[in-house]
Write a structure and sequence with these properties.
By secondary structure, this protein is of the alpha/beta class. It has helices at 16-29, 44-48, 58-63, 69-72, 103-113, 131-139, 153-169, 190-202, 216-223, 228-231, 236-256, and strands spanning 3-7, 34-38, 74-75, 81-84, 120-124, 142-148, 176-185, 207-213. It is built from eleven helices and eight strands. An eight-stranded mixed beta sheet has the order 3-4-2-5-1-6-7-8, sandwiched between helices. Helix 7 (153-169) links the parallel strand 6 (142-148) and strand 7 (176-185). Helix 1 (16-29) crosses helix 11. It binds adenosine-5'-diphosphate and magnesium ion. Residues 16-17, 40, 44, 124 line the site of magnesium ion.
């Protein structure tokens, strides 16, 4: 069995891809086998990990049964961390109708049965509430929602939580919340502090303890095609993602106990 965590928010620029690539890298450093699925047709996780984009959509090939998860996984620079890359085309490879097909649960089972398989599968979702995010919410065991510490954070979050509730109702087993992650925090901005207080006040059970600060090292690492653990392991951003990976692994251990 792979533990599948979707990283989702309908907003762009909140740190989904940065979180997916860096948590994936730290999980792998902690000895877990990790698969990251780049489900965003913009392919930011693919370029952020310097993996060459495939000519055709791996998702379509999986769907059509032409290839398996194992065939499509590509190595990254980090041992035990693999990626299913996104092709350069921005076309969405699925229609809303596809989501009602029996392929959705079949492909989840084949992911769980893959050998040697992955302890964790992270899904980097596109910044929309379209078919790809819906698919991720059907495949996932849990969803992690990054929230940028800025204006309108609460509105976006409420909308995302409603989508999660809807997805939960259409599933045979509950969709867990891996947490709300506060990102792009600036300690010198009053607004950042207010957002943290407000989100913690309304969702005390859901907010993760780790807060991701705004740190240019994280953006630079992406543009160099490296996870921050490799590019700038002593930066504030690296420490934050290391702590987040630890916090998430602790939760996972508590769940399975
Ligand atoms: P999303 O996937 O939600 O659209 P990204 O992870 O791609 O968001 O982040 C958007 C931009 O902000 C990227 O250029 C990324 O490098 C940068 N970024 C993300 N998180 C941070 C951070 N904590 N500090 C500084 N820059 C960040
Ligand atoms: Mg992204």
């Amino acid at each position: 069995m792979s533990r599948v965590i979707a990283i989702a928010s309908q907003k762009g620029g909140v740190g989904k891809t940065t979180t997916a690539t860096n948590v994936g890298a730290y999980f792998a450093r902690a000895g877990r086998r990790v698969l990251l699925v780049d489900l965003d047709p913009q392919g930011n996780a693919t370029s952020g990990l310097a993996v060459s984009p495939p000519p055709i959509s791996p998702l379509r090939e999986l769907w059509d049964g032409v290839r398996t998860w194992g065939d499509l996984a590509r190595p990254t620079a980090i041992e035990r961390f693999e990626l299913i890359p996104s092709p350069p085309s921005p076309t969405i490879p699925l229609r809303t109708d596809d989501l009602r097909s029996a392929r959705v649960p079949e492909l989840r089972s084949s992911l769980d049965q893959a050998t040697p398989g992955w302890d964790f599968t992270l899904i980097d979702c596109p910044p929309s509430l379209g078919p790809l995010t819906s698919l991720a919410l059907q495949w996932a065991d849990a969803v992690l929602v990054p929230v940028q510490c800025e204006y309108y954070a609460m509105e976006g979050l409420a909308q995302m939580l409603r989508l999660i509730e809807q997805a939960d109702r259409s599933r045979s087993c509950p969709l867990e919340t891996a947490g709300i992650l506060l990102t792009l925090f600036s300690a010198d901005l009053e607004l950042s502090i207010e957002v943290v207080d407000e989100v913690r006040k309304y969702f005390p059970e859901l907010v993760l303890e780790t807060i991701i600060p705004r740190d240019v090292a994280l953006a630079e690492a992406t543009s160099h095609g490296e996870p921050v653990c490799q590019y700038a392991p002593r930066s504030r951003g690296a420490w934050a993602y290391l702590n987040l990976a630890k916090e998430m692994l602790e939760h996972e251990c508590a769940e399975t106990r």
